[in-house]
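Hey, resending since the last one bounced:
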Amino acid sequence: MVKICCIGAGYVGGPTMAVIALKCPSVEVVVVDISVSRITAWNSEQLPIYEPGLDEVVKQCRGKNLFFSVDVEKHVSEADIIFVSVNTPTKTQGLGAGKAADLTYWESAARMIADVSKSDKIVVEKSTVPVKTAEAIEKILTHNSKGIKFQILSNPEFLAEGTAIEDLFSPDRVLIGGRETPGGQKAIKALKAVYANWVPEERIICTNLWSAELSKLAANAFLAQRISSVNAMSALCEATGADVSQVAHAVGKDTRIGAKFLNASVGFGGSCFQKDILNLVYICECNGLPEVANYWKQVIKVNDYQKNRFVNRIVSSMFNTVSGKKIAVLGFAFKKDTGDTRETPAIDVCKGLIDDKAKLSIYDPQVTEEQIQRDLSLNKFDWDHPAHLQPLSPASKKDITVVWDAYEATKNAHAICILTEWDEFKNLDFQKIYNNMQKPAFLFDGRNVVNPQKLRDIGFVVYSIGKPLDPWIKDLPAVA
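The structure tokens again:
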């Protein structure tokens, strides 16, 4: 029986290993993590992450050929294939601070693998890592090998949160990069055989190590660039009276461009886009390519601009002040169908409103009050470091209340901000909400969820990103 061990029980490791276990009943899969609370949650009825379909997959396999354990060294030493899915946060200090990936956790994982291994291993990079990480990992393993042979493979994940299980069941492609040596090719073949249990062979792409590592960064950079491009257009649409949805539809019909990732919004979030682009910027700078680095930096700048522009619209529309006003925030996760708040635009929007002394009432169906308070208290990039390195009890924001009902959040509010495109927000009784709000009642739609005209007919003053402006807002400056 092939034994697989995955180091890291997070958003990538947990779902990926669960699906491998389901699709490969003859393979034993163990997910290990040093976090006792996380492993306890994976072994409980309440999984530590929310992902549609994940619950069913885990419960079908858990205890049969899928196991979750804190006995890291035991299972690493017994495994044939070791997936490493640890954090690669952006460095907060030192060389490359604010851009480069911090490989501390990867390096410690590699040293531990070398220490406990008693047989040859295939070590698979599952985390998103900078190009040439495999070379560094190879050196660590080789110099500590005690005669054991290690093969390093790059197998980047291309999961989208909210559809991760679906993406794993039917991936666009599985990418496996390895050394162009007999040992490297043999390792590629072994990992390919695992995926071949359910993925058609033509969708399994085999490359050299560096191509696989760079392809992940490149894919996320291209996707983020599309979002920043349409968001830049949304500002022009508002200035000219065009409708960004109509523009995106027309552009998306060009088969060379396509419609995906052309939805204007308050900005992109998630654990990958910003981090990977900053990583790409740093690699470009290190390789003497400042013009290329500056090009990718602009994608981040447009994303920051979009969030700031949204806050400015709110303040300028509400008589240039939100001080002491109750603003209902609907949605805090970075997108629907996930409880993940990493780099969510809601953090910057909420901080901007709090800085202007607004009182926030926040509702998200999957995000806890503890998580929201933590996110609004942490410094930039701290979210990606292990919990024990983060503040134990972040300062609670007094201007925030977190409620578990959209109607409660909006009661007596001066304004509503929609920051996540949860389906339930489309079906709210907006007449009831309007009746219970302060007047004039403002609604700022950061995800283009609602029908602006229907809400204007009720009586709302509506701002939707990239849509023709409400008469109330039209003649006001975009910046307070």
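The two ends are 65 Å apart (CA to CA).

Sorry for the duplicate.
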